[in-house]
Amino acid sequence: MSTFVKNMKPVRHPKRVVKKRKCTSNENVEFGKTLENNVTEFPVCSNQPNVVQREKRRAFGNITNSIALSNVNTKRKTEDQPETLNKKDKRRKCAKDQTNEKCLKQNLLKSTTEKTKDAAEHAVHKPNKSLVDFDVDKEDCSNIWATPVYVNDIFHNIREREVVFPLADYMDKQLDLSKRKRAIVVDWMIEVQEHFELNHETLYLAVKLMDHYLTKCLCKTENLQLVAATAFLIAAKFVERCAPLVEEFLFICSGIYSRKHILVMERRILSALGFDINIPEPYSFIRRYAKCARSDLLTLTLARYICEMTLQEYEFLQERSSKLAAACLFLAMKMACSGDWTQTLVHHTGYEKEDLVPIMEKLSSLISTQNGKLKAVYTKYSHSTFLEVAKIPPPKPFTFQLKTQQ
Question: How far is residue 378's CA from residue 386's CA, in Å, rounded to a whole number?
Fold first, then answer.
């Protein structure tokens, strides 16, 4: 590119030759008069006294001035001319005026309606006082992890799924099993959950999976621990972020079973349940109801302790998870003296006090009389990490009857 630019030569235009024209005497006189008027504005060269330098034309000054002058002239002409309109022109003018008025009216109506709509949208509607107390999730509007918009729909869906997973009395059908053997296996599962530091939802779901499998299939005593370990593996895969490996469950089972045994049992459990393992469990209801009651950590931990004690007991098997969670929380509130069963709890749980009193009496008797040697839950909640809630004495059963009679 540089060589190309060097070879290029500037183009030289030929000089322009102007022919001089001889002027007559009259033309010289007129030209001189015009020059006399403009001499004061332009300087005259000393070498040529008869020639005057003309003004150099600016970029846009003269153009704008000429346009302004033309506009003034046109205005003057229009003002001077009288308005002479025919009948047809007058009719057209009237029609145009009428259409313009209609358009203005329509625009005004549109603007007013839009303003009223905007005002209605931005207006703050005051809800009823009866609904304000039930809005528990208004504090979590900015917290996306709490899902305040969908939380009511989620728990409504879980309540509907409770009907899909009923648990019947299956112990009469099982020839080799008993309630005591089931309690021993559940006590072992609680220790497994504490050993692997898994979530409590995993423990509850594993017990539910085992019970639902035993309602549909027969099981021998030597395979009951295999069913429990496999149910724990399925629940961990469903709930946990990082589930334990199969080899870890084999190690906990003391090497009684092989990897093939667990994989075959996993297929049997999933096929027996139709691969629908999203079973409602009471732990999620306890957390939700404790939030609705605005309970402290002591009351919540005490309710979790009472609910976990029911896992070993076969008589609480047929209770609904939502109702059992509500009864556990109400009993914990009585034991911790942290409030009463309010209308907000009635709205969110769907249970009155009278519906929960029979279950609360069973729970209080369960806490007072420990289950013999099976003390995994008691030792777990007697630790300082769980605020030693297992050492809190339960209330007397007759206090519930007195308050219901009043």
Answer: 11
